[in-house]
Design a protein that fits this description.
- This protein has 295 residues and is α+β, with helices and mostly antiparallel strands.
- It folds into 2 domains: 100 residues, no CATH class; 165 residues, P-loop containing nucleotide triphosphate hydrolases (Rossmann fold), CATH 3.40.50.
- 24% of the residues lie in helices and 31% in strands.
- It is built from 8 helices and 17 strands.
- Strands 7, 8, 9, 10, 11, 12, 15, 16 and 17 form a 9-stranded mixed beta sheet that branches. It has a 6-stranded mixed beta sheet with strand order 3-1-2-4-6-5. A two-stranded antiparallel sheet has the order 13-14.
- The relative contact order is 0.16.
């Protein structure tokens, strides 16, 4: 095995790779992960870090856990592709949550006064479009699709998330074209306190824009948050098989009861912040509502 040190997702870990593995394709995915994906020579300071061991799969790819060591067997195609970056990032979600840091499928933006707002929503709900519209109003980007939430003492914080976004072309005739990847700027560089959470629904059929308080949480909202907060530690967004063929993979065995209890506690903390549902016919209207709420 070839030892290295890996920095990704606001963590440093020891990484052991098969000899001769070309990590170039993984490095190209760095700007699509919170905190990047950077390899460097290991030193004494990495001895007590979590460890990710990567081997080639003889049969089915799998993940096992042994204390602070995560062992992943990947197909050769997956290990030699950008999938290596995504899988090693996900393998470290256990260590993140042990440090009260969590990866969340959400967008985030920071007000001109330095307060962070989480934007939740299903795929296609308008998170990216609304975030870009907030940027036009002087907000700072803090993550597209991948946002990092942390608890520090008596505060919830937003940490820098994914710095790029896939933006749908404005020309309706290009609706099937691949979305170009754009760098988000200006982008958050330091943690900021969480001011509030908005769950978005943006659709032209919505007749009247409105913000509706969502606290106290309904049972449905609690269930949605439980699923969202556990998504990355379950490995659900990160199949093990790589870019060829049908992607698949088991639920990863990274979770444990103390971490599940902490996530439940995190839901209680979120309920103590302003938390609203937003309905708007277009991203510009949504951004105007959010700006009026937080400025």
């Amino acid at each position: 095995m070839n030892p290295a040190a890996l920095a990704t997702g606001h963590l440093t870990a020891a990484l052991e790779l098969p000899p001769g593995l070309d990590t170039g394709p993984a490095v190209t995915a760095a700007n699509r992960l919170p905190g990047g994906w950077h390899l460097f020579a290991p030193g004494p300071e990495n001895r007590d870090c979590p460890v990710v061991e990567v081997t080639y799969a003889d049969a089915e790819p799998k993940v096992t856990v042994d204390g602070q060591t995560i062992r992943m067997s990947l197909t050769c195609g997956a290990a030699r592709s950008a999938t290596l970056a995504y899988t090693t990032y996900t393998a470290l979600e256990r260590a993140r949550q042990e440090r009260q840091i969590l990866t969340l499928h959400a967008n985030a933006a920071v007000t001109p006064s330095g307060r962070g707002v989480l934007l939740l929503g299903n795929k296609g709900a308008g998170k990216t479009s609304v975030t870009l519209a907030l940027g036009e109003r002087g907000w700072t980007h803090a993550g597209d699709d991948l946002t990092v939430l942390a608890e520090h003492e008596d505060e919830l914080l937003i940490l820098p998330g994914k710095e790029t976004a896939a933006v749908r072309p404005q020309d309706p005739e290009l609706w099937q074209a691949p979305k170009p990847i754009v760098d988000l700027a200006p982008f958050l560089r330091v943690p900021v306190p969480l001011a509030g959470v908005i769950r978005l629904t943006v659709h032209p059929a919505i007749p009247r824009p409105q913000l509706v308080p969502a606290t106290p949480f309904s049972a449905n909202e609690q269930l949605r948050l439980h699923e969202a907060l556990a998504r990355y530690i379950s490995g659900l967004p990160t199949p093990l098989t790589g870019p060829t063929g049908a992607p698949y993979g088991p639920v990863w065995p990274l979770d444990d009861l103390p971490l599940a209890r902490w996530r439940t506690h995190l839901i209680t903390r979120l309920e103590q912040h302003p938390y609203t549902y937003l309905y708007a016919p277009d991203p510009q209207t949504a951004a105007d509502l959010i700006t009026g709420e937080y400025l």
